[in-house]
Structure formats: C-alpha cells, structure tokens
User: What shape does this take?
Amino acid sequence: MTGDFQTIRRLWISLLERFSRMNFGLAIVVALLTFTGFMTLFSAGYSYPWRVADQARNILIALLVLIVFANIHPRYLIKMAIPLYVTGVLLLLATLVAGTTIKGATRWLNLGVAQIQPSELMKLALPLMLAWFFQNRGDRPGAKDFIAAFMMIAVPVALIMKQPDLGTAILVATAGLSVVFFAGLPWKWILVMVGSTLASLPFIWNFVLHDYQRQRIITLIDPTSDPLGKGFHTLQALIAIGSGGVFGKGWMEGTQAHLDFIPERTSDFLFAVFSEEFGLVGNITLLVLYFILICTAMRIAVNAANTFSKLLAGAISVIFFTYTFVNMGMVSGILPVVGVPLPFMSYGGTALITLGTCTGILMAISANKKYKDD
Assistant: This one.
C-alpha cells in the first residue's frame, strides 16, 4: 500500500508541475479564437449542418494533438525532424503521381482509410528540419549552410507549386525562410534575394503562374472587371464587411451569408461572415487576439532554451502571422485570393490539426525553457 501511495503521490506531483509550467496566456487566446470561430461557423454553416458537426470533431482531434505535443520534450522533436521532412517530400511526390484531382488541382492523396493533404505536413516538417539543421551548424552558419537550407526549401515548394497550390506554397516557403532569417541570414543576401525576385517578376508572370493565378491578380486590381466571375468572391466579401458597420448585425443575423452571397463562407471567407455579424468592434477584438497570439509565440521563441527551440518557435509565430495576414488581406481585397484559412477559425481538419500541433510545440518549448540540454 505504501508503494502504491508513493507512486500516486509522485504522479500527482508530476501533473502539478506540468500544470504549473503551462503557458496559460497561449492556451486562453487559442481557446477564445477557436470558440469564436466555431460560433461564427455555426452561423455561416446553418445550411451545412454536417460541416458544423465535422468542425466539432476537428476541434476535439486538434485538442488531443495539442495535448500530445505539449507533453513531448523538445529533445525528442529534434529526432522527428528528418523522418517528417523525408516523409513529407515522398508524400508530395506520391500526390503528383497518384493524387486525387479536385477542381483541376491534385493536392490530396487517398490512403484508403483517409484522404490527406501532404502539403499541410510540410508547413511544420520544413521549419522543424531547418531548425534541426541550423542547431547542428553552430552559432555562425556559413554560406554553404544557407545554400543547403534554400535547397531544402525549394524541393517541397516546387512540388506544391506543381499541384498547383500557390497559397500553401507561400505558407511553406514563408515558414522555411523565417527559420533561415532567424538563423542569421546576412542582410546582403536578403537584399540580393529581394532584388532578384523583383527582377524575375516578368518571368514569374509569364512562365510560372497559371492562367487562373494571373487572373486573380488582375481581379485584385479591379474586382469590378468580372463581378460575376473572378471578382465575385472579393466583391461579396467587401459588401459583407461594409454592411457590418461599427457594431455588426448580430450573431446569426448576417444577410450576405444567410442568403448565400458569400462563397466558401465556412472556410476561407469566414472572416467576411464574422465582420458582417460583429462589425468593426468585433474585428478590432479579433485583431487584438491574433496580436496577443503572435506576440506570445515570439516571446516563447526569445526565451527558448537553445537554437533549435528558438528557431522552431520563431517559425511558428511567423506561420500564425502569415495565416492571419494573408486570409484577412484576401477577404478585405488587398491581396489576391489564394485559399488560406483563418487560424483556429476556418473550417478544415488538416489545417486545424497542423495549428494544434504548432500550439502544442510552443507549449512544450515554453514549459522546458529552463532546460539548456534539450
């Protein structure tokens, strides 16, 4: 009996210690965003009840994944870097060969028991791989190290562009480049890269972008040029945002959404539904929540124990920022429509699980920030 009591006591003390090291600020803001997203999706998906039920399931799965990764010590995350990256690249290759094509894009791979989108895996696998890479290169990586890192980024990004999926390619590239930047990429390299990108824009426009991608950029400049076609999404979203006014029309009272004027209102354009129902005040509140989320992630990166944890947490904070900025930007008409979900709010299982994994990793890094031997 005494031995059993001691075992229970040690387990209880261990649980209390883990609980005390939990980042409550991060947990609260993620919970608020998820709850807000689910309530908005409930309103937007009134005619799609199965989507509401699916999202409830997705949230539970993402929560489970979050809890699992929050309890994985960063020293074990390092060991996952190479296997995850290699698996992700192989799955992307398999998608090109035997993937499922929907609406002209081959982005999904049917595994029999489930259909997955391998590009989502690379949003985390790539920064994980690069963080491991620079962890092993010391405090001052050289030119060869940065070139190798760019090659690691180029492979999955090229495969995702081939699908084609410009939105995910941008997110994956941004996540990877953020690690390279935080690893100490010299400013002269950055200036050369920016200059080269600007100089290559005509080539990218004529030979890299697909016709529908070029049309999206043209539509961004003048949505009224094709109000019932390519510009329909943007125009209806802007009408919804504007009609919300200062205080909004109220939950479940958005006419643009309930009369089916907003396309993809439960996923990529959920922000338009939120804006119509909660107005400017709701939007400011939402921006504050995302600002707190990103700042919390950056603070975890600054206080992390070692290079690997710092780079990985920094990349995750950039992922959160990119998701938020691109989604709100495209819905508001300041960026082209590229199909990026609003973090923790938009409908979608794979994206939500990816974000849950990122949050769990941040919590693990935050909880183990005192352990220099991670």
Remarks:
- The longest strand covers residues 105-110.
